[in-house]
Amino acid sequence: MIEDLLPQSVVAVEAYGGEVDGVPAEAALYPEEEALVARAVAKRRREFTLVRSCARRAMEKLGVPPQPVLPGERGAPTWPQGLTGSMTHCEGYCAAALVRAADLASLGIDAEPHDRLPEGVLSAVALPAEADRLDRLAAERPQVHWDRLLFSAKESVYKAWFPLTRLWLDFSEADIEITPAPGAAPGLPPHGTLHARLLVPGPVVGGRRVDRFEGRWTVRQGLVATAITVPHG
Q1: What is the phi/psi pair of residue 105, to 5°?
Q2: 12, 22, 130, 147: which sits with the fewest CB atoms below 10 Å from its CB?
Q3: Residue 203: which of 172, 171, 232 has the closest Cα?
Q4: Are 38 and 29 in contact (CB under 8 A)?
Q5: Considering just the CA atoms, what is the radius of gyration of the chain in Å?
Q6: How far is CA 124 from CA 128, 130, 150, 170, 226, in A?
Q7: Other CB atoms closer than 10 Å to residue 135's CB: what's the count?
Q8: Other CB atoms within 10 A of residue 88 CB
Q9: pLDDT tens-digit profile of 145-192?
Q10: Strand intervals (E) in the chain
């Protein structure tokens, strides 16, 4: 699912339930990782382990020896030298996406249950213009939970933003336009593109300041998934 949203240069590995790429996940953690979840509840420990199994499988596919994935500043994962990537997990699903840093400046992925956001969350994350667009989308295509899709997109934008800036990005500092794919064939899952306009000075990438991020989204298997990629130039 996530792989379909990303360029071919990106390696994405997913886990549904307890399987990574259709194979039962290895439960081993490195000692440094084990120390981080030694007192965690079972659900937290399971998600932590599974998503790192995905990340290590992605490393192997890129020819990089598997190694610990430790949280760095603001909890962002620390990747092996020469790689950049993103991870996500929600109930029953985990994914990691890795790419050589020479191929992409940054990326962010997110997956959420395809369900309405809890009461009060949308008003905390959506700009007035975004809320208006969501209302129009909901009237046209009520089968999609557009509020949850916007939330996921904001998460992906932040995950792509932070490695480039090392700064916090508030929900109100990116205006995201969600566009459904036109003329989708009957039976295909809903999908489309994301256009995020940064409302604060963006990162400098390849000698130019970036003021917009682009990405893609899909809804399938009871999940909403979004991905943002930032090219070098």
Answers
A1: -75, -40
A2: 22
A3: 232
A4: no
A5: 17
A6: 11, 12, 12, 10, 20
A7: 11
A8: 26
A9: 999 999 999 999 999 999 999 999 999 999 999 999 986 556 678 999
A10: 11-16, 19-20, 23-24, 83-90, 93-100, 106-113, 174-180, 191-198, 204-205, 208-209, 212-220, 223-230
